[in-house]
Design a protein that fits this description.
about 625 residues, alpha+beta, Aminopeptidase, 19 helices, elongated
């Protein structure tokens, strides 16, 4: 265990010697080190001015490294960062670097410059700093003077945790409850999978319900190596994992929700409730209300209904103030006969139609139908027989931009806090094929400038209405762009979503590695074969290394689907540029298929038997990841 403290004036000579020992680690000769000594000298009277701190062994009190943060806002320098040779590789340098970055952000520094020894260049790139690969090059710093000869210039933009993330969970750890299936099950919609198998996989996204999890509560068993990898990459500490909780046992019925599964384990419920941490679910349910002790008001969720959301949008637009927002026409069809009449009339007029179930997630229950498809099916009534049962909404189709490079599907994310205040998180571009959601990208400039203002303004207006209706929690508003500079809102989701996960990861990485991350979440990266646990770990390691070489971060978001008969992974990639993000995404898809195909050709494809990661039966012990 290492702790960071301010350096003391009496340590000046000792710290200077440590600096030279650390420099010598790279094999420099005595003559070169002697030439560096004046520049690297530390004087007793400059400790405070240079903001020098030391990393100290918490048990023995031995100084293991030091760092300095020099200058002031808007531009400062990481003047020193040296680690005792015997402590290199133990995370001391990372702790000192992260401490300097947090301190710089707190001081209001917008650019932190680093002139690094070439041997340390790999370390700074791994930390997320941007720079030139050539010694002596100015790199990202631009207008500043050239770095000293033989050094590599790096730059990072220090950033505190985003204000919305501070407000979401108070800026600290939270208990994440992966109740995706429980949330979906409360909407008795024919388009939702009654078995909720996919929802059990999506519960893995509970790892990312806030930037800093304190505990994960999961219905199914997850590979323990997955959690350890995430904890290392996102620098989480002390995460407790309680998995396999809804896999039978404790006298629960087979369809019991996750919240009731926790309540059936009094020791676990007491531990989670007594931790003093906020409980964050995927979405609100009656079961979660009982677990968390919050009031249950079912009407809070009424705008999860697509027809109710459409009515809400209409009321907002009737008040004016949103000229760039258009509302598609929507007509409820309580019976299939009524839906067939509406669809047939629109097809006869040459119009494209969107058919929607009242509820549905990720585009389930939504179908886009043109006149050609109606004719090919043998008429509207015949076509409707192939769709999920239940009432339908018939909606006007909004044609998108002619240029395929222009984003078509956008979303606004925000939340309403316990006091009813609306917090804007931001806008994202979604990847949608047909009517099916496949992923989303967040980051600076992702939403086109023409769309950002209208999107944020209308999203906030929806948030105010949700707050007035009593809703408290995360929400989004989905839009389609019409190709002429207008946005059409299509639905609200009163829960966490895929884009929300990308926002959480972006907030964490910005605080760790510097502002400006692009993050892409991909729901389903197809695999060439079912991968046993060891093969999945190997693949994730390959993808992590490959993405790092591109300047990107790779995170496995959903690992458990790798063991399904039609195997896939949910993934996140992040980078400081759109080019690196695209390259990392392409690498992930190619490697996933290649590794799976190779495994299918030469090895058995049996799924591993995953046991819960908890250390006691019934998920009450938990595993602590440090």
């Amino acid at each position: 265990m290492v702790k960071i403290r301010a350096a003391r004036p009496r340590e000046a000579e000792e710290l200077g010697a440590l600096v030279l020992r650390s420099k010598a680690y790279w094999g420099y000769d005595a003559e070169f080190l002697a030439s560096c000594a004046p520049e690297l000298r530390i004087r007793a009277g400059e400790m405070a001015e240079r903001r020098i701190v030391v990393a100290e062994d918490a048990e023995g009190g031995r100084v293991l490294g030091l760092a300095s943060l020099e200058g002031g806002p808007p531009v400062a320098r990481l003047g020193l960062l040296f680690v005792e040779p015997g402590a290199i590789g133990r995370g001391v340098g990372r702790r000192l670097y992260r401490h300097a970055l947090r301190r710089a952000a707190g001081l209001g520094v917008r650019r932190l410059l680093i002139d690094a020894d070439p041997h340390a260049a790999g370390f700074y790139r791994a930390m997320g700093a941007l720079g030139s690969p050539r010694p002596g090059a100015a790199g990202a710093a631009g207008a500043e003077e050239e770095p000293p000869a033989g050094l590599v210039r790096f730059e990072v933009a220090p950033a505190p945790l985003a204000a919305w993330a501070q407000a979401w969970t108070g800026g600290g750890p939270a208990v994440h409850v992966g109740n995706v299936a429980e949330y979906n099950a409360q909407f008795g919609d024919a388009s939702l999978d009654s078995g909720q198998r996919a929802a059990r996989h999506y519960a893995c996204l509970a790892a990312f319900y806030s930037p800093s999890p304190g505990a994960l509560v999961l219905p199914g068993a997850v590979p323990p190596g997955w959690i350890r990898r995430l904890a290392r990459l996102l620098e989480w500490e002390g995460v407790e994992v309680y998995d396999g909780l809804a896999q039978g046992g404790s006298g629960l019925p087979p369809d019991a929700g996750l919240s009731d599964a926790v309540r059936a384990r009094p020791a676990l419920a007491g531990r989670l409730g007594g931790a003093g941490l906020p409980l964050v679910p995927w979405g609100l349910t009656a079961d979660f209300a009982r677990l968390s002790g919050r009031p249950w008001r079912p009407r809070e969720l009424r705008y999860e209904s697509k027809s109710a959301a459409h009515g809400l949008f209409g009321r907002i637009l009737a008040g004016g103030g949103h000229p760039r927002i258009l509302l598609p026409g929507q007509w409820p069809a309580p019976t299939r006969r009524a839906a067939a009449r509406l669809l047939a009339a629109r097809a006869a007029a040459g119009r494209v139609t969107v058919l929607k179930s009242e509820h549905g997630v990720g585009g389930s229950g939504t179908t886009v139908v043109g006149p050609e498809r109606v004719r090919a099916a043998g008429g509207a009534r015949a076509l409707l027989r192939s769709l999920p049962r239940g009432p339908l909404l018939v909606e006007e189709y909004v044609a998108g931009p002619a240029d395929p490079r222009e984003p078509r599907d956008l979303t606004y994310d925000g939340f309403v806090d316990g006091a009813g205040r609306v917090h804007e998180v931001g806008g994202a571009v979604m990847d949608v094929a047909g009517a099916g959601y496949r992923g989303a990208t967040v980051g600076p400039g992702v939403v086109p400038a023409w769309a950002l203002g209208p999107l944020l303004a209308f999203g906030e207006a929806v948030g105010r209405e949700l707050s007035a209706a009593g809703y408290r929690g995360w929400f989004d508003v989905d839009f389609v762009a019409d190709g002429s500079g207008r946005l059409a809102p299509t639905e609200t989701n009163l829960r966490l979503t895929g884009p929300s996960i990308a926002f959480m990861v972006a907030a964490r990485l910005d605080a760790l590695r510097g502002a400006g991350h692009f993050v892409r979440i991909a729901d389903r990266v197809e695999l060439g074969a079912r991968l046993p646990g060891a093969a999945l770990d190997d693949l994730c390691e390959v993808l992590e290394r490959g993405c790092a070489e591109l300047g990107a971060v790779f995170l496995t978001a959903i690992p458990t689907a790798a063991f399904d008969p039609a195997p896939w992974l949910g993934v996140l990639v992040a980078a400081h540029s759109g080019e690196a993000l695209d390259a990392a995404g392409a690498l992930v898809r190619a490697e996933a298929l290649a590794v799976g195909a190779a495994f299918a050709r030469g090895q058995r494809t049996e799924a591993p038997s995953l046991s819960p990661a908890s250390s006691k039966s019934n998920g009450e012990g938990g595993v602590r990841v440090t």
